[in-house]
């Protein structure tokens, strides 16, 4: 990416994606924890996630443009909403997928609800949650490209210009740049999830 001459636009893309994912996580992780508290809430929230994912991505641009106008804030809002769905989903699935015996063992050792969440449920669900963060980054990259329709200064805008001018070479270079950003994020997050799972397996094997 640095050798292609699009490093500055790539860094704007990274900044937009990371900011949107972090803000989305601040909302989506608590929502997922709340939803995982009961089977009924989990079903309702997962149904909502399925519904949101059926909408075309450009649909998310309409309300944010009405609220914030054509600006970087509108782009961040659209990316945040689109990227928050997988974080909610995988937070719920990770927390609901913990074996009941593990939670019962924590309760028998005197862990209250908050302690069980902090020291048992979230650490065990963390590898699954990382899969959600990985999907969130992919969704955010995709949405950043779509958000170029309302005016951005990142790789998405340049891709739109390349398509408008039928500049195949420029479009391929920019497409590879976005793909490499996604592959880098996928590699880092999946390696992290694999290491966490391996550590949990070693800890489980070492437990009496």
Please render the helix and strand layout as text.
Elements (H helix, E strand, L loop, with lengths): L6 H29 L3 H16 L6 H8 L3 H25 L3 H9 L4 H34 L8 H10 L3 H39 L2
Helix pairs in contact: 1-4, 1-6, 2-4, 3-4, 4-6, 5-6, 6-8, 7-8
CA-atom Rg in angstroms: 20 Å
Shape: elongated
Strand proportion, as a percent range, falls in under 5%
| Secondary-structure element order, N to C | HHHHHHHH
Mean pLDDT, to the nearest integer, reads 84
How many helices does DSSP assign?
Answer: 8
Distance between the termini: 50 Å
For the biggest sheet, the summary is: none
Helix content: over 70%
Structural class estimated from helices and strands: mainly alpha
> Unreliable stretches, pLDDT < 50, 5 or more residues?
none
Tally of strands: 0
